């Protein structure tokens, strides 16, 4: 309104000035129009963008050949040859990659993009990943989120900060390590002696529910929660348990039992918290296992040469130990589902992210990301 009046006034006296005034009026609006939705990420190595680079831990991906397919071929801390799934979701919501919370660059305007709190090796339980020593467990990630909110409010005021957080997209990936790096880490692990598998699943989901309640309590209103992938089919497990490349049935049974119960737990939470922004479910279940199962069942249909062999590693299925500069490395990463013994290649991540965006409810439920983007289009500035 003010801008229009100013432009009209100028037009009556001097046309060039009018054009200038219009330009000046349009300019301040531009950054707001372009500002993408903030994105918050919690979880483990599947979504860690480099927090562990700043920690004393063996769970890290900060040396070659990690990152070999990035523009400058440098390792970033992502467990991939290039982008991971959250980078690709940032692309989908029209944003730039989210910085790790521990990065010194995460300050000022960069805070508006969001923050990535994920740390490789962690799980729902505090005793998951103890072998990796110094990693950011989930309760600490939430404490960092509180810290982030204070910093944001200090810089931009409490109202804007609340709008950024309430209008944000949040994603959390947890649970895989509670099986692979805890219950099934060694035969007769402490947790497997304590719990039968069904009781263990109930236990970790009851803990997970509290974590998710806390994230909601901190203001997040659209939260993607990923299930556990095909943990019995990753090259690391094939190397240990499989003769012919068929998946480990026990681990597969674990994720098969876990995923529907996780979805049921999210439904309970949705009933508890109500519709977040007045437009649909707060918690959205992502079935990454389903995407992966597609690749494993028919790799060629998706342009992959193998879904059993890792690109970077050593030994059987290239799945033994970690990916380092002396590992055997495949020539064409795009032909592999798995980059290392546990993590997908950028190309696999891209196909998985596509299912987030436009998959049916078999992949993401009760709605996909394009529906979410449409519903939430007025929430963020
Ligand atoms: C994990 O540790 C944190 C911090 O010490 C604690 O608050 C939390 O209750 C613990 N969680 C479980 C499941 O024991
Ligand atoms: C998912 O996204 C696509 C593309 O936006 C849409 O046409 C479709 O209806 C959605 N599917 C479901 C099940 O929501």
TrEMBL record:
Residues 1-35 form the signal peptide. GO terms for molecular function: hydrolase activity, acting on ester bonds. It comes from the Eukaryota. This is GDSL esterase/lipase. GO terms for biological process: lipid catabolic process. Keywords: Hydrolase, Lipid degradation, Lipid metabolism, Signal. It holds the Pfam family Lipase_GDSL. Belongs to the 'GDSL' lipolytic enzyme family. The lineage of its organism: Eukaryota, Viridiplantae, Streptophyta, Embryophyta, Tracheophyta. The keyword Transcription does not apply.
């Amino acid at each position: 309104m003010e801008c229009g009046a100013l432009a009209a006034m100028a037009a009556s006296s001097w046309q060039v000035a009018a054009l200038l005034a219009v330009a000046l009026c349009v300019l301040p609006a531009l950054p707001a129009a372009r500002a993408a939705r903030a994105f918050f990420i919690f979880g483990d190595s599947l979504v860690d963008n480099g927090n562990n680079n700043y920690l004393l831990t063996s769970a890290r991906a900060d040396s070659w050949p990690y990152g070999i397919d990035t523009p400058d071929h440098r390792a970033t801390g992502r467990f991939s040859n290039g982008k991971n799934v959250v980078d690709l979701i940032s692309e989908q919501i029209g944003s730039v990659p989210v910085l790790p919370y521990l990065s010194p660059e995460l300050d000022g305007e960069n805070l508006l993009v969001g923050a990535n709190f994920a740390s490789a090796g962690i799980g729902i339980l505090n005793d998951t990943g103890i072998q990796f020593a110094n990693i950011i467990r989930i309760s600490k990630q939430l404490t960092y989120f509180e810290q982030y909110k204070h910093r944001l409010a200090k810089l931009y005021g409490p109202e804007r900060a609340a709008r950024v957080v309430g209008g944000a997209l949040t994603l959390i990936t947890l649970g895989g390590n509670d099986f692979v790096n805890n219950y099934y880490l060694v035969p007769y692990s402490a947790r497997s002696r304590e719990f039968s598998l069904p009781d263990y699943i109930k236990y970790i989901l009851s803990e997970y529910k509290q974590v998710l309640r806390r994230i909601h309590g901190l203001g997040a209103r659209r939260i993607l929660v990923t299930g556990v992938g095909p943990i019995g089919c990753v090259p690391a497990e094939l190397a240990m348990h499989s003769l012919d490349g068929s998946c480990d049935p026990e681990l597969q049974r674990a994720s098969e039992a876990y995923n529907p119960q996780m979805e049921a737990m999210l439904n309970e939470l949705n009933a508890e918290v109500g519709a977040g922004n007045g437009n649909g479910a707060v918690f959205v279940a992502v079935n990454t296992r389903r995407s992966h199962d597609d690749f494993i069942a028919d790799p060629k249909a998706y342009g992959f040469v193998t879904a059993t062999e890792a690109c970077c590693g050593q030994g059987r299925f290239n799945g033994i130990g970690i990916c380092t500069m002396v590992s055997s490395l495949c020539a064409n990463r795009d032909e592999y589902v798995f980059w290392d013994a546990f993590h997908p290649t950028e190309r696999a991540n891209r196909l998985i992210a596509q299912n987030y965006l436009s998959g049916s409810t078999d992949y993401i439920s009760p709605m996909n990301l394009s529906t979410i983007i449409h519903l939430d289009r007025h929430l963020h500035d």
